[in-house]
Amino acid sequence: MYIGKPSITILRHFLVGYQFARSELDLKLTKEDTDFYENLQPWIQRHFDVRTSNSWANIILRFTRDDKDALNGFSRDWMSVSSVIKV
User: Fold this and answer.
1) Measuring CA to CA, which residue among 78, 17, 4 is closest to residue 48?
2) 8, 37, 78, 86: which could join 70 in a potential S-S bond, CB 3.0 to 4.6 Å?
3) Inside any domain, residue 5
4) What pLDDT does residue 3 have?
């Protein structure tokens, strides 16, 4: 997947756009997509021990230096846990 530059914010916008496009085209999300969207926010909140209505991307940004660092950390952390929660 190419999102232009390393940015957690751009990744979030891409994922929201993907979900919206599928909805507009009346395409159901796959089980993997649904699992991802349902588990991502709760996992990020547990991982950073926060309770907030901020997006998962904003939560990560609060604990990293910048957008690029946030994306790198997300990629590393999410990939390590995704097999555990079957996403």
Assistant:
1) 78
2) 8
3) no
4) 87
Q: What would the pLDDT profile of 50-67 be if each residue is shown by its tens digit?
A: 999 899 999 999 999 999
Residue 83 confidence class, pLDDT cut points 50, 70, 90 = low
Q: Confirm whether 64 is domain-assigned.
A: yes
Structurally, how many domains does the chain consist of? Answer: 1
pTM greater than 0.85: no
Q: Which DSSP helix (H) or strand (E) runs through 37?
A: helix 31-47
Asked whether residue 20 is domain-assigned, the answer is no
**Residue 65 CB-half CA count within 13 A:** 4
Share in percent of the chain as helix, strand, coil (round to 5) = 65, 0, 35
CB neighbours of 6 closer than 8 A, spacing ≥ 6? 67, 68, 71, 72
Q: Which of 3, 11, 2 is nearest to 58 (CA)?
A: 11
In a domain, 48, yes or no: yes
